[in-house]
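Q: I'm writing a short explainer about histidine kinase for a general audience and would like to include a description of its predicted shape. Could you first generate the structure from this sequence?
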Amino acid sequence: MGQFSADASAPQRQVKPRRGRLSVRVRLLAIALLPTLVVLPLFLGWAMVRWNTKFDSLLKTKVNGDLTIAHQYFSRILEHSGEKIDALGRSAEFRDLVGRSDPDALSGLLERRRREMGLDFLYLVRGNGEVQAASPEAARPPLSRDWPIIAKAMAGTPATGVDIFGPDDLAAISSDLAERAKLELIPTPNAVPSDRRFENRGMIVHTASPVDLPGVPPAALVGGLLLNQNLVFIDTINDLVYRQASLPEGSQGTATLFLDDVRVSTNVRLFENRRALGTRVSAAVRKRVLDEGRTWLDRAFVVNDWYISAYEPIIDSRGARVGMLYVGFLEAPFMAAKVGTIAALVVGFLVVTAGSVPLFLRWARGVFEPLERMTDTIGRVEHGDLGARTGATGDSDEIARVAGHLDDLLDQVQERDRQLRTWNEELNTRVEERTQDLQMANRQLEERTKQLIMSEKLAAIGEITAGVAHEINNPIAVIQGNLEVLRMVLGEKADAAATEMKLIDEQVDRINQIVMKLLQFAKPDEYAGYADRQAPDEVISDCIPLVRHLLRKTEIDVIRDSQATRTVLMNRTELQQILINLIVNAIHAMPDGGRLTLSSRDEDSDGAEGVTVIISDTGIGMPADVVARIFDPFYTTKTRQGTGLGLSITETLVTRQGGNIQVDSVPRKGTTFTIWLPV
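A: Of course. Here's the predicted structure. Afterward I'll give you a sentence or two in plain language.
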């Protein structure tokens, strides 16, 4: 029984903050700094991300509007070309010349009007495919191809569209036209790989208008404008889309006409004075616009820089995607403006933070410092310093008043502690006296209880063994006497049953041995032999020949480890009986072979000198419930052999000598018996 103590030096119970609970300092700092250092940055980050998304969306919207203007101008070029040719076909001068069948005058009119309209070719073709007049005069239009534009005009409907003329078609009209269309392809990063070195096809604004005169077979007036290297056309688009001051300083608007993925007309610069004619569009843009037929509205790498770009496919008169129309402007000035805006916001946030955080911290410190002093005071009190105080003075705020109340309470606690210490000393003295009395009484009670239990056990077993000896010895004596009478009566005839009689003698002797073991267990003092000094290793050596017949039945290796130099005072037969019992049990535990270790060493126990003998096997082992009962009389795990008295007698012989026996067993690993005997 322990003693109650309120001594200041004794360990005190400490009230520790719960894990996961934040201190007042941390919470106050969080309240002060969370809006500025967490909420505001998150809000600014969200606002900048949203603004960046809107900014990019506005750029895409602008370039989409620019593409709409370029598309409208391109459509207007097509429409205007058709209107001019249709007006020529309806003019009186043209109709008069066609009616007079004057080829030279008609050719001169077509040449003059072609130059006025800015066309590259103009000719009159009849329904049978005969060219009645053409400009240039030596032109041979490619009428062998089935042009949908001409077919519609022959059917009486004016038509205008974009068609792609091959190099032979262009050369048949004019060698100069073929030369203008030819472009050397320039290797371009990110473009689809190609083995072509030149682009010699031409993108033509193809227009046809029906000519319907009385008495004249159906005919069509056909004209065309080559867009390859048509810089006036592309510069006009660029001037319309990107007027002066429509873009921020440093930006540049560009426009391009593509034949397939090749720039055939552009104001994008490859170098300072060279346009990027012959360069090709990136594979990603080509796939979306030409392959999939969708409009591109996004940033793209154009020749040598990033542009906010818009591309749309160009459809020819047959409905095929043959090229692209592009407008865009440099991304760098807008990115610089975006980065500048973000940097201004970040700098402004840092300035605001640098000015406000110290102020917030000063206010927070005025709250948590008094609280920390109170916490420190309470901690010192918990560690035994009952004289600790916060030292708060005045009543300037609520926290100061709480600190003053805490000091008053600590004064009362210190007085109560002084009184408790006085009472505790008296109580400790009384408890110590009562504890000593109880300990002595408890030890006496335990000794008496052990003696009583052992006496009752021995008395009960003594009565049992006495009765067994009386009941068994008398029949055994009768059996032995009658067996001798049978031998005398039978004489030489008894030899015929000699084996059976020998078995009867052996079993009778076995019964006598069992009765002897019972009496030895019940009354060990009466059957104790003469005690003498014995060397345990010598007794072990004497025991091995006695069990050699059992060792030969299985493959068991016997290992000796003899280190003991002391002797024990004990009857040699009893020590031999102890060792043989344990060795035989170990052999029976290893039916399939194993290792039997017999060792000894000098060892002291509770200050007394002695010898320890260890008998260890690698057999089947025993579970804990069996280990707990192996020393109980008549308890055995051998169902067909053994009496269950071997280990009980062994324990009795060891304890009678003042020693002890212990067992350690692990199922399927083995068992170890450790015997300690005093010298």
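A: For your explainer, you could say: The chain is about 50% helix and 20% strand.
Q: Perfect, that's easy to follow.
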